[in-house]
Amino acid sequence: TQKEAELKALQAQINPHFLYNTLSLINWKALAAGEEDISRMTLALSTFYRTALNRGRNVLQVETELSNTRAYLEIQSMLHDGDFDYEIEVQPEILQCESLNLILQPLVEKTDGRGKITVRGWKEDNCVWFMVEDNGVGMEQEVADKILTMESKGYGVRNVDERIRLCYGEKYAMKVESVVGKGTKMTIHFPAKQLVDIQKSQSS
Q1: Which of 39, 105, 145, 189 has the smallest set of CB atoms within 10 Å of its CB?
Q2: pLDDT of residue 25
Q3: C-beta separation of 83 from 134 below 8 A
Q4: Buried (b) or exposed (e) across 15-32, using 16+ Cβ within 10 A?
Q5: Residue 155: is its pLDDT beyond 80?
Q6: What distance lies between CA 172 and its chain's CA centroid?
Q7: Is 174 exposed, middle or buried (CB count within 10 Å of its CB: 0-12, 13-18, 19+)?
Q8: 62, 78 contact by CB (below 8 A)
Q9: How many other CB atoms are found less than 10 A from the CB of residue 189?
């Protein structure tokens, strides 16, 4: 029917492939015009949305989550004209482990001024650990303690903490430490489990 055809046309417009194909075309035109910054931004945006959407799945490999985080930081760096630096240091042995989708991006969000964001990942006590640290303005520890409560306006960070505790248990609650004038450090951890490839498991 006509209504079904109209609905399909609408769905095609919001289909992720439409987004990726458009970004790919922008990238091609940017390269053809010698606009390398536009190309970098376009590729980073494509990577970010591809991993953020993750085909609707809630879990992915740490390696993919890091790809998402790196793309986000690359975009933010360009948006802020390189006013802040970032560094990602991760032990190779955790790259194939399971991670919840979008648990690092809210922690690295940075919208103010200059500085540096450092992301570290490692395996310890059969858990995957991540520490996200900045050298920004910081805050009183009393304020930092409230970030994970309902009083907080930092919904993204609180959401990460709630998702980890819901999925893995209360003992995996996030830790937030901060010192005024020195910066803030957020630490998360969860069980180190190898992520079984869903497509392989379905085909076997």
Answers
A1: 145
A2: 93
A3: no
A4: eeeebeeebeebbeebee
A5: no
A6: 19
A7: buried
A8: no
A9: 21
